[in-house]
Structure formats: structure tokens, C-alpha cells
Amino acid sequence: MQALCFAVAAAPVRVAEAGSAVQKPLPDPTVLEARAAALRVAGDDPQALHQVLRELARYYYRNGNFDRAAAVAGEMVTRASERGDHLAEGKARITLAWITTLRGNHTEARDQFAETLALARTLKDPGLEADSLDGMGYCEMWLGDFARASALLDQSLAVARRSGNTTDISDILSKQGDIALRQGEYDRAVTLYEQALVIDRANNDVASLAFINGSLGRLYSLRHDYERALALGKESVAQATRAQHRLRLAASHARLGSTYADMGRHAEAIAEKQQALQIFNAAGIDNWIGQELRDLGQIHTATRQFALARRYLSDAREAAVRAGRRQDEAEALLRLGELAEAEQQNDAALDAYRRALALWQSDGSRNGFMASQVLNRMGLVEERRNHLDEARAHFRLARLADPKNGVAVNNFIRIGRLLSEQIRTENTREADRFCRVADESAAAVNLTHCGIGLLLTGDSGRALGYVTRAIERAQLPGERAFAWYARGSTLSALDRPGEARAAFRTALGFDPPRSLQADIHFALGILENSQQELSQARQLDPTIAQVSSVANLNTRHRQVRLTVTGQGSQGAIQQDLYVPPIYRRLLINGEPVLFLVDTGAAYTLLNRESRERVRLQPTPDTLLVSYADGRQERLVRYRPRSIALPGERPRPLRTNWMLGTPGRDNLLGRDLLSQIVSNRWFTEARGR
To answer: 435-460 burial string, b = 16+ CB within 10 Å, else e?
Structure first.
């Protein structure tokens, strides 16, 4: 388990519809086909034929029959071109471009939209211009260039507002909300979606309402407000059903399934995903089929049904390879890497992540968010392999790919602490840089990540200020739970165990996601030395080892690594669990000295700087010490004149000597812990 590390999932984007308008009941396609055939034979009313073909294209489009929709739209283009009706030709080309992008060919579709944009500006038609810019922005969003996508959508919105087309305005606002959602700007996304909803309610556009409510449902799920997320997801399904829009019905089922998965309700998640997959399969929308296969694989990974997960993910990858969709293949490889991690196959995980990253780069993707997620996962794998330099390099690249990725920033800082104290200045600078991002956004999640970063650099006082601001700023239960969890960790580092417990308990009161619940119960288990809390953590997250015995509580450069052994779902487990370092201050010869509590150490160790400051003199005695990594070292004994807790008088001790260490940390071992502190204090220290 990697403490204080949370991934953020990407939500699917809205399906735009060519010539979108207030949804009407769909006519019988056989009637439309017969009417079109009659008009073709008569040949005397091209406008009427164009209108019938448009209704046919709309029907096939909404029901996912893209081959037939493209054929009808192609006929519209040909006929409009022959009679010189360039505006009708442009609108038909817009339909063809949307079909292209829904099939996952975003680069080709973007070029098609660019051609219709040139035609629109020649004709000086604002509707066609707004639709073309809208489509180009949608494609750029899928290609990962959010800045370019936002600029194009802003242009489209300005044109649509000048022309007064409220349907287009709603559609564009929804896409801008999608971009904000993908970048983690949740407050801005809510504002944009709500603006679109006002328009759609006024227009009684039920299909559009279904899609936006589905988007809002995913947003609230990502913010862990599951009650609201479920209500919106179910409303979205009902609205898509009433609108007779099969594609949006499938999207609604898919998003509702993702919400159930976030909640850990995996059976319901699978049922919703299967319904979505059935519709997408019937429509032959390969890129969305791949998305649902990947999601199902991810759900089965979470439930540790690895064989099923591998089948779904392999099918998703093979489908992407056959269709030549590199980004979809990269997504499948990312999920296969996560599966390999769950199976503790680190080499296979790294191989999958490298392939995913190479595919994104070769496809010209500028999706820094996804690249950052992959690089962060690669860093975590390298850390488990104890390749700390490689891990930090990956975390560095991850935060460069997406400067807003607070998880990668804090992993970068944390690994720096493991490597060398000389990196402390760089860590502080990096934490301060991200805190400036947090100050600018004032978002609760960013403020919390800033606090965590400061905590990792040892600036616990400032960290507490930021997590307190995050608590004040947080509006949704998930944000509050995360902030209170960070507050508990900070208070623990500040030697305030009672307040830390209260903060962790408060975090649990906001019904956080299962992964965070597991982290909180684990933190409480370590804090309180409670097997019950540790067992509850493992029930919530099976990847956490059952702590049956402590093999070693080892400190490595101010990072506490708790190595535990026990029984996991796949058999015997030995796992390293990282917990916040716990410090205690003692008075040695009347001078304050800060020690790191290490209940795995039999003896107390004092570094050279502290020995010189408190004027300790060596004795002629030495002791051969064995370390957890098998090394042995002969250390000199030092005998202080007095040892006491701050605020207490020195007391007589059975053991009143300590060992000199060439290392950096002063370690408070069991020899002195068991004698100089009260029973209550020792219990707290032992639990951590």
C-alpha cells in the first residue's frame, strides 16, 4: 500500500450530435427509406429528398448504425454538391466528420472539420462555423491538447452566442465542462454543466439532459459524493430511455457502472457495464467497446479475479491493434500494467507501462494528464524494486508532464527523502512550487496535496495550516475526508496523537472511498497498535497484508518502513508499508535531542553531531550490532550524565548508555523506551 497516493480516473466525454436540436420522437426508418426511394424516382423535389435523408441519417446516427448513417450522409453531400447547395453540403460533411470521430479517428475527423470551417467562413454561415469549431475542439480534447481544445471551443461559443443558437451553446458549454473535468477542475466543470442544463431544460432537450446529468454524476463520483452521483446517474438512464437515444443510453449505463465501481459495488458495476457493452457491440463502435472492456478488466482486477481481468483487457488491446487505434491500445496496456502490479509482477507491469507511453508519444498525443499517470505508476513500481533513483526520475517526469499532479509531486519529494538529505533544498522548493499552484486555485484537493508535500519535507507547522484551509474550503464529503486524513497524518508527525486519532475518526465520518477508508484504518491500526483496525483495513483493500507479526521496523533516511508478514488472498505475504515517522524529544545531559522512534531497534543510537553538541564522552566498551539487511558493525558505547523527558526530572535507569552511529538519524530504541517513558506514552510509540 502506498500511503497518501490517489489516482484520479478520466471520465468519458459527451457524444456530440450533428445538427443537434430539441429531440423529437424518431420515425420508422422503413417509412423514411420508402419516402426517400419515391423522391429519388420522382427527382423533382431535391429539398424534400434532402430533408428525408437528413432524418434518416439522424435516426441511424442516434442508434449507432454508423455505416448506414455515413452512406446516407455521403449521398447528401453528393446531391448537394451537384445542385450547388454548398451550405447543405457543408452540414452533411459535418455529419460525416462526427461519425469519423465517434469511430475513434480523431486526427482524420479534425481535418474534416477544418475543411468545413474553411467552407463556413467562405459562405459566412455562423451555424456551420460554430459546428466546425466545436468539432475541432472535441477532437483536440481527445488528442490531449486541452489548451488548443479550449481555445477552439471558446471561438465556437462566441459564434454561437452571436447567432443565438442556444442548442449549440449548451453543447459547447458541456464540452468545456468535460475538459475541466479531465483536468481536475471540478468546481469549474460543475459551473459549465449547470449552465448547459439551464438551456437544455428550457429547450426540453431530454437527450442532452441525459448526457450532462451523466457527466455530472461521474464528477460527483470522482469527488466521492456518491449519493448525488447515483441519483444523477439513474436520472441520466431514465432520460436517455425517454429520448430513445440508444447511444446516450449506453453512455448513461457506462457512467453509472463507473460510479458503482468507485463505490466498491462491483456486481452492480459489472451489470451496468455489460448493458452498455451490449449496445456498443450492436452499434459497432469499436473505441467505446474497448473502453467498456478496459473498465470491466479494471473492475475484475479490483476484485482480484485476475484471469477474467486479463481476458477483458487482452480483448480490448487486440481490438485496438486491429483497428490501428494507438491511444486505445495504450489505455489497454495501462490497465494491463495495473493488473500485473496487482499480481506482484513488477517486470511485466513496467513493460506494459513503457509500451503505453511509447504508443502515446508515437501517436503525437499531447495528453500530459495520462502520461503523468503512467510515469507515476512506473515510479511506484521502481520504488517497490528498490530502484530509488529510477523511481525519482519517473516521478520528476510525471510532475513535468502534468504540473497539477499533486500525487506525483509528493512522490517525487518522498523518494528524495529516501535518497539523500542533500536533496532537502530541492524538495522544499518543489513543495513550495506546488503550494503556489494550490494558492492560485484555492481548490481543496490541491491545498491538501500541498499540505502533504510540506509534511514530507518536514515542515509540519505549515502543512497543518494548509490542510486546515483545505478543510475550510472543502464542500463535498470526499474532499473533506481526504483533508481530515491529511490533518491526522500531520498531527501524528507533530506528536499530537489524541488529535490525530480524532482527525482520522472525523475523516471516516464522511464515508470516504474504500481505498481511503483502508488507509485511515491502517493509520489508526499503527497509531493505536490495533489488530482490529489493521484487519478492517485489509477487508477494505485486500492488497494490504494481514499484519500477524512485525519482522522489522526499519528507518531509512527519515522514512519509516514497516515490514510485515502474514497471510493474503494469494497465500503468504511479506510487504513493506510506509507510515509517517514518529519523533520524540529527550533531554540528554540537559540538552534537547530529537529522536526517531524505532521499536525494531534494540538499542538507542546517537549521531556524531548530537554527541558533540551534548558533549558525550566515549567509553572503552564496544558492541557488535546486526542490521536488518545482514550487515554487522561494531559501535562505541557512550554514557550520558542524565536522560529525561522534557518537563521531567532525570530518573535512574537500568541501562544508561547509548551507541554512537555514523548515520544521520538519532534512533530511540527499545532499551530506553521501556524505561524512561510512561506506560501510556510507550504504548503510543510502540503502535507507530
So the answer is: bebbeebebbbbbbbbbbbbbbbbbb
Q: What share of the chain is helix, strand, coil (3-state, %, to 5)?
A: 65, 10, 25
Q: CB–CB of 614/593 below 8 Å?
A: yes
Domain spans of the chain, in order of start: 513-580, 583-687
d(CA 496, CA 392): 31
Q: What angle do CA 316, 320, 323 make, to 5 degrees?
A: 140
Task: Give pTM, 2 decimals.
Answer: 0.61
- Dihedral sign of CA atoms 260, 261, 262, 264 in order: positive
Contact status, residue 560 vs residue 618, Cβ threshold 8 Å: no
pLDDT of residue 1: 27
The answer regarding whether domain 583-687 maps to CATH 3.40.50.970 reads: no
Per-residue model confidence (pLDDT) at position 380? 83
Contact between 23 and 188 under an 8 Å Cβ cutoff? The reply is no
Q: What percent of the chain has pLDDT over 90?
A: 23
Three-state DSSP string of 53-103: HHHHHHHHHHCCCHHHHHHHHHHHHHHHHHCCCHHHHHHHHHHHHHHHHHC
Task: Supply the angle between the helices 460-473 and 477-493 in degrees, to the nearest 10.
Answer: 160
Region for residue 15 given its phi and psi (left: phi exceeds 0; alpha: psi -120 to 50; beta: otherwise): beta
309 and 297 in contact (C-beta within 8 Å)? yes
User: Which positions ≥6 away from 256 have C-beta within 8 Å?
Assistant: 214, 217, 230, 233, 234, 236, 237, 272
Extract the C-alpha cell encoding 38: 419515391
Name the stretches of the chain with pLDDT < 70.
1-27, 64, 104, 284, 287, 323, 361-369, 386, 404-405, 407-411, 413-426, 526, 529, 542-583, 599-600, 627-630, 646-656, 663-664, 674-688
Please count the residues of the chain.
688
Angle subtended by helix axes 206-222 and 246-263, to nearest 10: 20
- Assigned C-alpha cell, 353: 507501462
Residue 36's SS3 state is: helix
At residue 424, the pLDDT reads 59
What pLDDT, on a 0 to 100 scale, did the predictor assign at position 122? 92
Strand order in the sheet with 559-568: 549-556, 559-568, 571-579
Q: How far apart are CA 89 and CA 74, in angstroms?
A: 9
Q: How far is CA 361 from CA 102, 392, 677, in A?
A: 22, 21, 57
Cell digits of residue 462: 505549515
Q: How far apart are CA 37 and CA 479, in angstroms?
A: 59
